[in-house]
Amino acid sequence: MFAALGTKVTLVEALSRVLPLSSVDEDCSKVLQREMKKRKILVHLGRMVNAIEERSEMLQVIIEPSTLLSAPTNKTKGSITVSVDKVLVCIGRTPNSENMGLETIGLETDDNGWIKTNERLETNVANIYAIGDVLGPQKIMLAHVASAEGIIAADNAMGDDRNMNYRAVPGAIFTSPEVANVGLTESQARGQGHDIRSDIALFRTVGKAHVIGDIAGQVKIVSEVDTGGILGVHIIGPGAADLIAEATVAIQMKATTRDLAGTIHAHPTLSEVILEASSLAIDKPRHA
Ligand SMILES: Cc1cc2nc3c(=O)[nH]c(=O)nc-3n(C[C@H](O)[C@H](O)[C@H](O)COP(=O)(O)OP(=O)(O)OC[C@H]3O[C@@H](n4cnc5c(N)ncnc54)[C@H](O)[C@@H]3O)c2cc1C
């Protein structure tokens, strides 16, 4: 976003790809990095900021090989210094559950301080529920997850018996282009023993992308070979954060690629890229 506003941006990432989140498809990271390069964003992967020094009203950022990767490559060896006006730091979150007296009521947290709950979002203390970021990264730290958890916890506190389901949680990242995902990545699906296929449709294959002049990006559908059951959808491109809603409903309803490919999508809209990807997934591409 800053680059789009004309700022010269340098990005430093300690791991080996941009957006190195387990929920983000590796191909989305590659496309995003390619688009960043087109926007002249300098990306340093496998490197960490070691120190920031103030010198003549500028900040000297000293960038070293990452200690989070096993060995530096030729690209990441040595130290680099970048001179900048501003530094934005965006690295991880920690719980804020200390000094609240949780221990006085015997409420359990894990070793890192995240509050433990069961599927009903009840803590180990009867009638005390917890929701949101304080449950930690295992439960997905997003605003809409906190909101959904709040409803489940409130219903249970009022006598209902509902479990929180994290199977169909959409994630949206407001980079340019946007990235959005729901369900499993290819590697997560394989890791869970699924026999999968991955089908990719490019935004450039749909007319609306050309109409709005924004053709970079793709949709990837990860589905089960036998059943066509949709396990994950990964989008990078225009409107990704909105388009993921269709994929979220599909996963929530346990839809198959055949269901999506058999659904009429309005023309000309960006949603046709999902139609294209699902048509590929049943070996009936429309514009191949
Ligand atoms: C930079 C950034 C960008 C984000 N972007 C997105 C996004 O685009 N989409 C998305 O879905 N999520 C996003 N998130 C995550 C989202 O903000 C959180 O998942 C969400 O706010 C969690 O809600 P919560 O109610 O659990 O916690 P919070 O929103 O953090 O609310 C907790 C509240 O409790 C208060 N508090 C803390 N201790 C005490 C105390 N002892 N007594 C009383 N009050 C206390 C805090 O001040 C705070 O107001 C982003 C987070 C960050 C940091």
Quick overview of this protein structure:
By secondary structure, this protein is α+β, with helices and mostly antiparallel strands.
Outline the structure in words.
With 288 residues, this protein is of the alpha+beta class. 23% of the residues lie in helices and 20% in strands. It contains 7 helices and 10 strands. It has helices at residues 26-38, 143-157, 186-191, 207-211, 240-252, 257-261, 272-281, and strands spanning 10-13, 42-45, 47-55, 58-65, 80-84, 171-173, 179-183, 196-202, 218-224, 230-236. The strands form 3 sheets. The chain has a 5-stranded antiparallel sheet with strand order 6-7-10-9-8, sandwiched between helices. Strands 3-4-5 form a 3-stranded antiparallel sheet, with no helix packed on it. Strands 1-2 form a two-stranded parallel sheet. Strand 9 (218-224) and strand 10 form a beta hairpin. The longest helix is centred in the middle third of the chain and has 15 residues, at 143-157. 28% of the residues are buried. The mean pLDDT is 95. Flavin-adenine dinucleotide binds at residues 96, 100, 132-134, 141-144, 146.
SS-derived structural category:
alpha+beta
- Beta fraction: 15-25%
| Dominant shape | flat
Helix content: 10-25%
Strands, total number: 10
Bound molecules: flavin-adenine dinucleotide
- SSE sequence, one letter per element: EHEEEEHEEHEHEEHHH
**Radius of gyration of CA atoms, rounded to a whole number:** 22 Å
> What order do the strands of the largest sheet run in, or round the barrel if closed?
6-7-10-9-8
| Beginning-to-end CA distance, first to last residue | 33 Å
- Give the oligomer, counting copies of the same chain as homo and different chains as hetero: single chain
User: Largest sheet at a glance?
Assistant: 5 strands, antiparallel
Total count of helical runs of at least 4 residues:
7
**Low-confidence blocks of residues:** none
Q: What's the overall average pLDDT, rounded? A: 95
